Fold this sequence. Notes:
- By secondary structure, this protein is of the alpha/beta class.
- It folds into two domains: 11-157 and 298-337, 3-Layer(aba) Sandwich (Rossmann fold); 160-294 and 350-360, 3-Layer(aba) Sandwich (Rossmann fold), CATH 3.40.50.
- The protein contains twelve helices and eleven strands.
- The chain has a seven-stranded mixed β-sheet, with helices on both faces. A four-stranded parallel β-sheet has the order 7-8-6-9, with helices on both faces.
- 6-O-phosphono-beta-D-fructofuranose (F6P) is lined by residues 19, 81, 122, 145-147, 189-191, 242, 294.
Amino acid sequence: MGALRSSVTKTFGILTAGGDCPGLNAAIRGVCRAAHDRYGMQIVGIAEGFRGLIEENVRIFKPVDFSGILTRGGTILGASREKPFKASLSGDLDGDIVGDKVQSIKDNYKKLGLDCLVVLGGNGTNTTGYRLAGEGLNVIGLPKTIDNDIVGTDRTFGFHSALSIGTEAIDRLHSTAQSHSRVIVIELMGHKAGWLALYAGVAGGGDVILIPEIPYDIKAIGHHLEDRAKSGKTFSIVVVAEGALSQAEAKMEKHERKKYRAENGPSVAYRIASEIQEETGMETRATVLGYMQRGGIPSASDRVLATSLGTAAADLLAKGKYGRMVALVGNDIDSVELSVPEGKVKTVPKDHYMIDTAIAVGTCLGSD
Ligand code: F6P
C-alpha cells in the first residue's frame, strides 16, 4: 500500500436502501477499500437504509468488516424501504413525523461527524439522497437495482445477475412446456420497466415478451400462439414483466388501473395465463420467479461494475464532489448530477435496438 492520498472527505456514512440486489456487497467493498486504503477515510456503516440513520443504528467500519464480501449476495448493512420524506400511514399525516425523521437524519449526520453520506439504492433512494442534499447534507449515490431503470446510468448493478437467473428459469421451462405441449407464462420483476423481461426473454428465446412499454392485445398474442401451433410447434413460452399491461389498462386513469389490478389476481402472469387459455383453448400454466431474481451471488459482470462504481465513488469523496451519482456512461465510469426527478424511471424506449432484435427473431411483443 502506497502513501495515503489527500482527501476532502475525512469521514462518511454508507447505507443501502430499497430492495436488495446482487452486487451490493461488491460495491460496499469497492467504496470502502478505496476510501480507506487509498485516502485513509473513516467509515460509518449505517444499518437498514435511512432507518438506521434516523435511529442511529450505526457502527464504525474496520477493514475486516468489508473484507471477504465481494461474492456475497444481499447486503451486509441490511436494507429497508424507509422513505424519510414520505408521511407514514400509521403516522401523523400533517407532516410532523416526516419532519422528525428528516431532522433526526440531519442531527445524526452532524453528531456522527459525517462529511458525506453515500447511498446505494434505486430511484427512490437517489431521490431521497437528492432531497437530503437540498437539506444541506453532502450526498453521493450509487445506482443499484435489478430493474435497470435509473435515469443517468446505462446500467445498474444487480441487473446482469437477475438477467442470468431469469434466463436460466426460461431455459428450464422449455423442457417441461415441451413435454406437456403447454403454454407457460413466466413473470419477471422490473417494476415499471421492461428491461429484465426483454433481455431475459431474448436471451432465453421467449416466443412472446410482454413489457409495460408496449401494452398488449390478447388477440395478437392468441394469433401468434396459434400460428406457432399450426407450424408444428407444440409449446410456447411467454415472458411477462411484472408491470406488463393490456391496451385497455393503458387507457385507464392511474387509480382505476390500480383498482383493476388489485381485483384481478395476485400477479399479472396468472391473469395473462387465463386470458391466453380463454382466447386460444391451449393448456396454459403460470410461474412467478419473484425474489429468486434478487438472491444469491452476483455475476462476474455485476461484480466488476459494482467495484468500479464503488471506487469511483471513493474518488468523488476524496475530491469533495458531492451531490452526484456515479454512473456507467457508454463504456466509461463517470458521474451525473444527483437530481432524479421524483417518479421518473428509465423505461425501454420504443426505438431501442432490443425491440427490433426481438421482432427480427420472430418474437411477438404483444401487439400487431
Ligand atoms: O426494485 C427492485 C424490485 O425487486 C422490483 O423489481 C420489485 O417490483 C420490487 O423491488 C419488490 O419490492 P419489495 O422488495 O418491497 O417487495
